[in-house]
Amino acid sequence: MISKVLVTPFQKFDKAQSLSGVLLLGATVLAVILANTPLAGFYEGLRQSRIVIGIHSFELSKPLILWVNDGLMAIFFFLIGLEIKRELMIGELKSPDKATLPLIAAVGGMVVPVSMYLLLNRNPQASNGWGIPMATDIAFSLAILKLLGKRVPIGLKVFLTAFAIIDDIGAVLVIALFYSSFIDWLKIVYAAIPLSLLFFLAYRNYFPKYFHLLCGIVIWYLFLKSGIHPTIAGVLLAFTVPISQKTDIRTYAGKLCEIADDIRDTRTSDQPILSAEQIEHIDDLEEWTGKVQSPLQHLEHILQNWVAWFIMPVFAFFNAGVVISMTIQPDAGLITSLALSMFFGKSIGVTLFSLAAVRLGLARLPEGVSASQIVGVSLLAGVGFTMSIFIDNLAFADSPRLLESSKIGILAGSLVSGIAGYLVLRNSRGAAEKKRRE
Q: How many whole angstroms from its chain centre is CA 22?
């Protein structure tokens, strides 16, 4: 049985990601419309408008689209890092029994699509796109599951989220190892100094948030200039955020009662403002509240909605504007290879590896989940979108033709995967329902 401790935070995450999927779809449609109408000049001008941040002799100038891809997406990856650390330490990936099935499913969902792409691709110039079909978009996938309502058991949503997070780990490693340009190792050494200090502070369970933010900006900048994509800095910084609380909940509850009694006993004045004594009690309450909160959980709570409802839709808006024009002849082979790898590669990989693990006794299906629902959710795994487009920007940055062609392949593969997954799950029955009918 899935505990309420897990379900309640997950339901909040599910709600945020589901709405994000709707916003992502809207941002994508708007971007495609703008890129293929008389407003295309405005859209491209907005993407390429330069924003300069500078203090005295220091200056950082980038087009708006790169501020989104290198800056805002670093926050997105920071949140992914927080989710990965939480899952590894206290979540679904902590227990070997719970982690085995999503881990094996994720391996299948990465190995098979990559292998299929390498087999199907016949263009040597497009060989660098092998990492594109390996990722799953959690927001879009959970949004589709949301449409199915009570047909989908909570265990299936947790399974999808868990293997999608493992997919993200794989994507982060692939970006760091294979999609980084020439590396300036001296700048990495400089970045390692504040990063090591933050890891030491995390080990001591100390989290000075403003100092952490300052170090984070320095580390992000050094990664940006080193040749390793700065989003990797976001993941590493997430692992320096401690998960433990300074104060246990029982001590906090006792202090809360004491402060509440003090506030109640404080003499009230006729003025519509607080007295100095009341302000002191409230400050004391805020201090104790800060001590009882897990820094990791608190940051994840703050960033979740910002990332889901703002950063991801903004990224989609600036990156999904595929130009459908005769002036740039699309690479049909690349489009087909990507779409097939995302649709067939993901579904075959996740299904085959998952059901084989269950048959061999290495793992078991989540409670109330049937084999047919695993097939349905494996089809949804082919919805790559956000991470796929992000890797696409790195793989084909120097080739506008391949960049636009791969975006068409990503959109086609994601669309077909989403529709097929929805239809299969709509007509499938969970294990619990099957038992009731037998």
A: 16
For the chain, give every domain's residue range.
4-180+229-244+294-437, 249-289
- CATH superfamily for 4-180+229-244+294-437 is Na+/H+ antiporter like domain (1.20.1530.10)
First to last CA, the chain: 22
Question: Running DSSP on this structure, what letter comes out for residue 206?
Answer: -
Spatial separation of the C-alpha atoms in residues 244 and 201, rounded to whole Å: 12
Q: Which residue has the tokens 């058991």?
A: 153
CA distance 164 to 239: 19
Residue recorded with tokens 């084909």: 396
Residue 206 backbone phi and psi in degrees, to 5: -120, 130
Q: What is the pTM of this model?
A: 0.77
Q: How far apart are CA 226 and CA 344, in angstroms?
A: 37
Task: From first to last of the 438 residues of the chain, give the pLDDT tens digit.
Answer: 444 444 445 455 555 556 677 788 889 899 989 988 999 899 999 999 998 887 766 778 889 998 998 899 899 889 888 888 888 888 767 778 778 999 999 999 999 999 999 999 999 999 999 999 998 887 788 788 877 877 788 888 888 888 888 888 888 889 888 887 778 889 999 999 999 999 999 988 888 889 999 999 999 999 988 888 888 899 899 999 998 876 767 777 777 788 777 777 776 666 666 667 777 877 777 777 777 778 898 898 889 888 888 998 999 899 888 877 656 678 899 999 999 999 999 999 999 999 999 999 999 888 888 999 999 999 999 998 888 999 999 999 889 889 989 999 999 999 999 999 999 998 886 654 555 555
Instruction: Count Cβ atoms below 10 Å from residue 13 Cβ, excluding itself.
Output: 20
> How many other CB atoms sit within 10 Å of the CB of residue 260?
12
Buried b (16+ CB within 10 A) or exposed e, 96-130: eebbbbbbbbbbbbbebbbebbeebbeeeebebbb
Radius of gyration of the chain (CA): 24
Distance CA 335, CA 13 (A): 33
173 token code pair: 């490693």
Task: Please give the Cα distance from 177 to 438 (Å, whole number).
Answer: 51
